[in-house]
Queue: 2 jobs
Job 1
Amino acid sequence: MGVADQSGSNGRTGTLRVKTGLAQMLKGGVIMDVVNAEQARIAEDAGACAVMALERIPADIRAHGGVARMSDPDLINAIKDAVSIPVMAKCRIGHFVEAQILQSLEIDYIDESEVLTPADEAHHVDKHAFEIPFVCGATDLGEALRRINEGAAMIRTKGEAGTGNVVEAVRHMRAIRGGIARLRAARGDELYAEAKELRAPYELVVMVAETGELPVVNFSAGGIATPADAALMMQLGADGVFVGSGIYKSEDPPARARAIVEAVTHYNDPAVLARVSAGLKDAMPGIDIGSLSQGELLQGRGW
Amino acid sequence: MCGRPRIGILAVQGAVAEHERALRAAGADPILVRDEAGLVGLDGLVIPGGETTTLRRVAGDSGLIDALREARRRGLPILGTCAGLIALADDIIDGDATLVGGLDISVRRNGYGRQLASFETSLEIDGIGAGPMEAIFIRAPIIERVGVEVRVHATYQGHAVAVSDGFCMGLSFHPELTPDPRFHQWLVGCAQAYAKASAAQNKEGFGVRA
């Protein structure tokens, strides 16, 4: 072929660029919660860019109560076998053994998630210790940078999962964007105090101040129920969206899944958004955040 | 040369902003393409990495795939990376139908394995500038067959990873994730040549660029 062959040379796996790279490929897409192989296929057919394999969607975790844990490996494997798109799964905050198990299952991304019951109230998983990339939730810039410092290769705003109410997702996305804008405007000698205020590493704070963006991809999650919700989060600066209960708690999941995928591609085109929003039957009923007690809020888990 | 070429980036889903940055640095004006109308008047096109199932669903339903096939037939310069390589392949081995096609190769989706097998390495590149290139492979497609008309620019462990046919280039890795500008510069060069040829033909009354 007249080209020097690279046979024998070994590729380096699990590098930071390889971990953050997959998240970059997911941008502009919708990651859907699924609880079985059939739902996973529906999600893939609808154009999801990845699926999140879990035993119960957040709305049912909320209703079920008790301790929510990593899903059964059989379930995760069945979903992995059913689709060709990336498969993610959740471990509890700080539960590094659940993370080890998920890595051994060779899924594509681990979500260290506040939707499950935390296993450690002081420490998150040391994500640098893994070859598999992690996504973590955040409610503001400081929390996002602390997770990135621990090795998260992707961030998602937490929102309030399982409510079908987008208000918290909006609050968290605005908090992160606002935090970035504040760092952009700060003088160089003010960044030490900003880092202290954010409880985040100074080096990451400087990086954000210089570039005006997070060093990893940032999706939106928690309460997205309609195509308009998804487009709202994209216009507010999300790189893509996670949709959990919003699809399978609605009346016509395949149609709603397709509509949300199109809404994320065409998030700036109200005519397309109007077309895909039409005739979708009922969205999930939803919960007023004010009706939840402090203890029922998932977003306060993690620190 | 007549100014910066207009190079579209298919923006259905995937790593769009990274290509935007690379194209701008290479001297092009990037334009995001989400529908058929967005393809009009372009001098070149990038089909980025992402999920081909998403591309198939969103672009297939809207008629955008047909317009992309027409653009490829017209000879519009195209750079396809990862999912973009799959989109350009005439043959997708795991049974999926051809998406855009126009590059005589057979590919297997995720042929290098799942995310844990994703890797970075250094490649010798033939015919696109000098010296080795850092290359990042993410759940990458593997090229199993290369047609006789197709030129191979780089291989990894016995498989082609960079192939071209005229103004059409397909890569199983992601040049938009590394600072090396060579593949984007190659596309800009092709786009300038294409724009020049189109302008000449337009004078003779052929609407090639339309």
Job 2
Amino acid sequence: MSWWLVSFARRGPGRYLSHLDTARVVQRTFARARVPIALSQGMRPKPRLSLPLPLPVGAEGGDELAVVEVADGTPADAATLEALRAASPVGFEPFRIVDVGERRVRPQARAATYACVLDGDAGAVVAAVERYNTTKDAVRERVSPKGTRRLDLKEYAGSITATPGDGETRLEFTIRHRSDGSARPQELVDLIADWAQVEPTMRGLERLRVVWKDVPPAG
Amino acid sequence: MNESRPGFPGRSRDWVPDEVARLLARVARPGRYAGGEFNTRSKPGATPRIVLSYPDVYEIGVSNPALQILYSRINDATPAAAERSYCPWPDLADLMRVAGVPLWTLETFAPVPDCALWGFTLPHELCYTNVLEMLDLAGVPLHAAERDGEDPIVLGGGPAVANPWPLAPFFDAFFAGEVEDHVEALVVALGEESREGRLRALAAVPGVWAPGRSERPAQRQVFMGFSASEPVLRPVVPVLEAVHDRAVIEVMRGCTAGCRFCQAGMWYRPVRERPVEMVVASADRLLDETGCDEVSLLSLSSCDYSGVAEALTRIRGLRPGLRVSLPSLRIDSAAESLARFAAGQRGSLTLAPEAGTQALRDAINKGVDEQQFTEAVRATFEGGFTGLKLYFMIGLPGETDDDVLGIAGMAAEATRLAKEIGRGRARVSVSVSSYVPKAHTPFELEPFAGEETLRRRQQLVREATPRGVRVAFHDVAASVVEATLARGGPGSDRLVEEAWRRGARFDGWSERFDVRRWEEAAMVTGIVLGEPSPERASWRDAVDARLDTRFLDEELERSRAHERTDDCRDGTCAACGVCAGEVGMDLLA
């Protein structure tokens, strides 16, 4: 048994997968490539597979991570990677495998950088972004079945970069992940859209890069 | 700590067009509309381009076996390209209308109306308004008479073509029966230059009925190459959770058990079986192609497949931990079958006694007696299942209140056995639907029970069923609509169109069905909802199901006399009329 870190891109139609759907795609891709994923013990065995940083529905990711325990002595080499790529559906593209041995690793995200496009008056959006970048705090309420939580978005995302276009603005921001949680891209976009008085519907959300803790270097 | 590598270039056809992405950013479950499944085919530049549709939401339609067959055959065995499109949920449909974005296909995001042929599989009557919704969202004129050379030819297939009248004006043509032998001819017909030429060529293909063009009914086509042909080996495998998430092998087509209410049993005759060797080899290949960990042996009655025991044993040996399921169990053979494959099972199982008393079961030719029922229930719980669902119908011809109360009696017996064998862990539930008489069955001209009777009998079941048994009923109002359309004649299309114009969509979904839209449509058109029975079998003017009407009449008489008719695969021919010329049973030796 050995644990693999599988880096993959999720693009195009793959961006509309949920977290569970993405996990199912990983599992099925491995099965099609005849690389068996180890199963948990117990009455209802489950594949030993996790995606340490869920990607929101609608978001593309250029460098996502799956942690998989592989059952037999399959080598984490170029041939296996090619088999996985051949077995994967459009929109899901594994591009790197790292065998980290028998000890399970639990990668933790420290920060993730996102980009997206917000439609509407670009001037208003840029002004809202400037207001965000200069404000001391930006407290929002997060309502969930567990209750309401107040969080200061500035603690997680210090600044936003805005690039205006024709009736749209490209936003880029880095969200820090802390032990007490993190902000969501949609929460930042909602705030900017609210201040700019445009529809809070973002397009082309993409996670550009992730900074991990406890991930061995590739190769 | 290390920083991961940024952005990885996607493949060229990965990208979702901006106008689609804008819409998908605002709807629930956007993955329904984006494709990207395993085993999708890409044939850029191929002609003609054909779109295949199932008129319901993606999760229901994506696993449909008929579309999987057509998709594979067209893409892998003809020069044409087949793409798919399903019915958008109302949240997306509203946005598409506002934005002026036409319905697209999952493979290329190209507009559906640019195709040469748009084929719908029509599974049941309650999806008819979805057909109109999809035509409208694509910008294709609703009525075939209003279409011109720029519009695709709209072709309907599937079991609901048994009576095409309620949809006749919306389709250029219908195909009756099994299409496998005629896919190539349909593709060739699309090569004609003019729309008129294409329609003329299509109408000449056996099995095609073109409203207003065909001079005689279309004869239902039977694929006699079934046994010798491989099942679909590279099916589209959804990446979202769909209603059926397993590798499917069609082991047998047709069923001659002869249940008198069952349209599928009449429509898919005769029985044809695939060799066990082919079934096992196909299972092995399918597991590789799909990545599934469950294989389902599909047919109308898989326990009747002659090679079921050998196939189950050998398929289970293909992979450790592999699950094999039989989706359709007949109670008279269930105990034996369960003993073979159910050991160590979990979860629940459905058995379908259909009717509550022996007399009524004999009348509908459902070969189940009380002893077989008891043995099947015992085998279910002894095999490890912890849930048992019993499926019944009410409103069957000749039904009395005593027959209905018999449902509660059978539920009580099953509950007693659940307590005795399941030691408190086992649960029994009952599902009761309303019988709707269908075309080309012995009951095709029998009266529909009607709303009042059905509601009263639902109440009888509800009151008599033991406590602790969950009882679910099918919506009577939806059954009334279904009954109206199932035997609707020429002109019944007006009811469908008026209901759709009043907002009817997804009528098979209880949360979406609103009978008031249909009642208003009925008032406008003068069509009586749930009319007891039609004056004549107008569907025979459109479709010849190959069934001898004398057989149907005799079966009705035998039903009234509570006489059973044996399964013809046991050697007794009931002279249904289907076996003639090259068409006949094709059973394993």
